[in-house]
Design brief:
The structure is a homodimer.
Chain A (H helix, E strand, L loop, with lengths): L1 H7 L10 E6 L3 E3 L4 E5 L4 H12 L3 E6 L11 E4 L3 H12 L4 E4 L6 E3 L13 E8 L3 H6 L6 E8 L3 H11 L4 E6 L11 E8 L2 E9 H22 L1
Parallel strand pairs in A: 1-4, 1-6, 4-5, 6-9, 9-10
Antiparallel strand pairs in A: 2-3, 7-8, 10-11, 11-12
Helix pairs in contact in A: 2-6
Amino acid sequence: AICAALLGEPAERPLQGMKVLISAGPTREPLDPVRYLTNRSSGKMGYALAEAARDMGASVILVSGPTQLPPPAQVDLVRVETAAEMYEAVIARAEASDIYIGAAAVADYTPAETQSEKIKKRGDTATLVLRKTRDILAEVAALEKRPFTVGFAAETVDLEAYALDKLARKNLDMIAANWVGQAEGGFDSDRNALEVFWKGGREALAMTGKKRLADRLTALIAERLQAGVVVR
Amino acid sequence: AICAALLGEPAERPLQGMKVLISAGPTREPLDPVRYLTNRSSGKMGYALAEAARDMGASVILVSGPTQLPPPAQVDLVRVETAAEMYEAVIARAEASDIYIGAAAVADYTPAETQSEKIKKRGDTATLVLRKTRDILAEVAALEKRPFTVGFAAETVDLEAYALDKLARKNLDMIAANWVGQAEGGFDSDRNALEVFWKGGREALAMTGKKRLADRLTALIAERLQAGVVVR
């Protein structure tokens, strides 16, 4: 199916017949019914990637944490709230997918205990014990029947070093890295720039609107996937 | 000014000439540039109260944490992010206000330290040390030249007991309490119901749209304020 899709279609629909799984948005890790721990993420990049993959001919499943974005047309939207729910939703669909793009800002730690009643204020200080969440990206990349696996890295320092380390350590096929906490791009912004790395190659995608950036990254994924299929 | 406003205006504009200060929405307490602790709050109730007070003739300042709501027309909107910023914005404007309605879901604990760089994952568990934030409502109620001070209580159990305790302990003029984690109302919902308490009185405002509920609560505030002015 991959070969037919890659070889039989015009260049404008390079993902025709492919199944693309994308995770997007933040997760919310509840301390109690009122309080939660979360990450800054608007979901805009992941939603733009879903639309780009759809427009390139793919059948797209978008697993999304809480966002304010409208559901993209002709995309199968699966809403989740916590990192554990996102893990379950992604892992259940990963082996049936040709490509997985992990664009969500998944909480890497979650409260060790969630209280069912609202916690009342006590002392001047409090200690919150957190436990690590499961690493969705690494577990998808470690599946026996793994999709082409693309991760993101949002960093405030040492972007390239962290991105290359994450690419190798999690055995990803590609990683798209961006600066956060800068004057422009990231988080709630409509614009962003990416440094994309894969084994033996890299490409810089210059600052632009997230929609156009998503088109370019998706085209690059299709190109690398095709190159990989030919080599294997 | 209070007497002129209360006595000289028709009933439809019972807050004519009054200055009303309202806080709304959640706060975000950053652990680092990416992660933060927050509370569930859409800001809808506070924004609806700002519109209701404006429509009853008041000059309104709305101090708002991050929400997805459009700024209400003819309201002075002050955007803040953290509990500390909300404290500063409210305290600076409280003594010049006739009424303060604390409708924000202010984080009561904040990370003891905020990292300027993104924290890297380490062990399987992590400990987060939190310190209590300043109590905006209690500090406004303790000001020498205090406004008529209205608090909110969102509870999952023992609603009346907690509300009455908060009313007395923080020396509020009124408290509006609502259940959270129920089938209907609270948080992101467009509807809610309130149990309103003051010294020597109470009134139940039945489940309805937040806009209508805000009109009723604001009318009740004007009524109690007028009763208080007569007595003093």
